[in-house]
Every structure is written in structure tokens, then in C-alpha cells.
Design a protein that fits this description.
This protein is an alpha+beta fold and 131 residues long. The protein has a 6-stranded antiparallel sheet. A hairpin with a 2-residue loop joins strand 5 and strand 6.
Length: 131
């Protein structure tokens, strides 16, 4: 299944996915961010900045999840803002999967609120990659 087919099948997910894609690509109009697609069960799309991983966006079940790996400095930044985020974001952060000195999260985007929080979490990742 290609990107367009996956998004067309999931109308609700399409709007949020396209907004997140636009947000990431607009922040880096110098073409240092690229999108790569792959078929992994459902549709999965990866973003990279100069070859460094930003996020996976997995489209499925009427929504999509954004999967990101954070480094130790990113974790400190998120720890500072997580208190002001939704109960869902706090739960996702508490359930993060440790990886070396960092961590992985899966954040499901299904509403304007979860979209806005996903963008905040993506921005922390982007800031750590672009110095």
C-alpha cells in the first residue's frame, strides 16, 4: 500500500498526518528533511534530517501514531513540559521504552489536542537535531 492509498482509506488520519508532515517539512525548507515510505504491515513513513531519524508515522485504525526516539537531553526537556500536557501525554511518557540513555514513545494522534501535543514533542526532537 502506498502513502496516498493508506491516507485515502483513513480520512480522519489523513488530515492530521498531512498537518504533521507539513509542519516538519515547513520548518526545514532547505530540503534537509526527507520523507521515506515503506510498507510495514500497514503504511509507515519515516522522516530524516540530514540522515538522522526524526520520526515514524504509522497510519492505521482510523488514526496514526508518531514514534520517536529521544536522547537524554531531549528527555530532560520533555520532563520540564510534560506536567502541562494531557493525561494521555503523561501516560505515554510514563510508558516510554528505555533505549540506552534515551527512550522511545508511540503517540497516537486522533484529535486536535493530540495533534498539538505531537507537534510539541516533534519540535523537541527537531531542536535536538538542528543545532
Amino acid at each position: 500500500m502506498d502513502r496516498e492509498t493508506a491516507l485515502a482509506q483513513l480520512k480522519g488520519a489523513q488530515v492530521f498526518y498531512e498537518k504533521i508532515e507539513k509542519h516538519i517539512l515547513d520548518r526545514h525548507s532547505d530540503n534537509t528533511v526527507i520523507l521515506k515510505g515503506a510498507k510495514i504491515g500497514t503504511a509507515s513513513f519515516r522522516f530524516y534530517h540530514n540522515g538522522k531519524y526524526i520520526a515514524y508515522c504509522n497510519v492505521h485504525d482510523g488514526c496514526f501514531d508518531v514514534m520517536m526516539r529521544y536522547t537524554a537531553p531531549d528527555i530532560l526537556k520533555i520532563s520540564e513540559i510534560i506536567g502541562g500536557m494531557s493525561d494521555y501525554a503523561k501516560e505515554v511518557w510514563e510508558d516510554r521504552y528505555p533505549c540506552s540513555t534515551g527512550a522511545w514513545i508511540h503517540y497516537y494522534v486522533s484529535s486536535d489536542d493530540t495533534y498539538n501535543e505531537a507537534v510539541r514533542l516533534i519540535d523537541i526532537k527537531l531542536e535536538s537535531l538542528i543545532k
